[in-house]
């Protein structure tokens, strides 16, 4: 046990000191992953257990105006991030095939790093999606998939900002933020009242768009396993794993919500029940409480507590895996090559020195997928 703890501590210190991007030193929440993990754990506890208990005997809040303002802010901030990402990176400077991280003080790269941090910060603002569900007593919208997605994203993005705030991985952030523009526009229109319902026929395509996003990110990232590119292979592994995991979960939702539903007898549609698993809110036009919730809460409390424990365990597992990675090496080459010319650097992805790390990574991913 003492040997394990020593390896854990040594790996953590090596990761945080030797592998970090020094440009983000001093940025809010960037000194350690534990504040982010704690915030995510508190979010899970509140939306799955504490919040429903506090609201059990209270009337739902009327939050239509707040939700409209929130959606407008999300749309505007997403447009801004996409614009900055295109102008300073992907429109003229970045390659879709291989884009190493430029750790220099180049003005464009500093802006890209800052946009990565703002993207990370936006993952916390999206917690309001679920908090609004709690305050409006829409507990049936707080699915495990919805909570898993929202809680994993800040923790996962933190590692990217800390070690690779730029380069190949920012493609996912760009694509995801573009999806947010469309998604929160939909939720904004839905929150503005029944007169806009006729314009929301494309609701189910939000889920399709999410699935296309994960497939695109997977193939864009997986190409790094077959070419020489000086980009951290472990980051590519994590991105591919998350893409496959969320594609599977979203696909299952799509089948349950839109394919199997067609085979059932016609039932009253609840326009507020949207893709709760998605990054955002449901159709906010309906503010009526969930009448069945009060009868179900008492029987669900124990199940919810177990679910909270499993989600927190999953998040902490990511922290443990990261410390192992820190001890065994994050980068395929010892130097953080600057500039696009590093595409030409000779990096042996399949060499023996990395074999034990790759085996451990595969084991870690299998364990995490089982936990989920």
List keywords for this structure.
single chain; 372 residues; mainly alpha; 11 helices; disordered C terminus; Elongation of very long chain fatty acids protein; fatty acid metabolism; transferase; lipid biosynthesis; transmembrane
Give helix % range: 55-70%
Q: Estimate the strand proportion.
A: under 5%
User: What count of structural domains?
Assistant: 1
Ends apart, CA distance between termini: 26 Å
What is the strand tally?
Answer: 0
Mean pLDDT, rounded to whole units? 79
Low-pLDDT ranges: 266-298, 319-329, 331-362, 364-372
What is the chain-wise order of helices and strands?
Answer: HHHHHHHHHHH
Q: What's the story with the biggest beta sheet?
A: none
In quaternary terms, these chains amount to: single chain
What value does the Rg take, in angstroms?
Answer: 21 Å
Overall, the morphology is globular
Question: What count of helical segments does DSSP give?
Answer: 11
The chain-level structural class is mainly alpha
